[in-house]
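Ticket #4471: complex job returned nothing on first submit. Input attached below:
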Amino acid sequence: AQKVTQAQTEISVVEKEDVTLDCVYETRDTTYYLFWYKQPPSGELVFLIRRNSFDEQNEISGRYSWNFQKSTSSFNFTITASQVVDSAVYFCALKGMKTSYDKVIFGPGTSLSVIP
Amino acid sequence: DAGVIQSPRHEVTEMGQEVTLRCKPISGHNSLFWYRQTMMRGLELLIYFNNNVPIDDSGMPEDRFSAKMPNASFSTLKIQPSEPRDSAVYFCASSLAGQGNYEQYFGPGTRLTVT
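Support reply: We reran it on our side without changes. The output follows.
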């Protein structure tokens, strides 16, 4: 069975602090995709990043960075110098690569509050 | 480029009434998903279509829920009769499945309140 765990239910940081959102996944598939989505207070889920399981390179996009470690089944997300606009619920998700029809499994989400 | 379009954005109805939610996926996408989000249960996949064909409807709560995709640019999710426990935000998402592009793009959601 596939599962995504985001142990941090809520995180609160002061603006300009760095924050890391944890994501741990379980799968028996040898190849899979991992995703992060952002859901701001407006409600719409926004796609942030997709990683393939065979590509363990970390990725940086502006203040965002992602650390994929297959050995620990983790795909953590770090926001550097957080801003109030980063306040949102962040979802980690997993999809197998066996078929195109494999469902995307979402984690429960981490609610991030950035305090000015 | 237009994203996923959902209507209505808000729906308030009385128990027992029929509710129809509508979705227009991103042009060119071949997969469409209906999700329901509540505080208690989080984000739940209800059903998804590939090339207009329902692939997995195991998430549909019960027979009161039905979904159709008559063509590549339109889908509906119907609840008949509606119940208060159906109150939630319903999201439609689309993706271009295949060739490694499986990220889903979500619509703004329909907030349904059943009184």
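Chain A has a mean pLDDT of 93. Closing as resolved unless it happens again.
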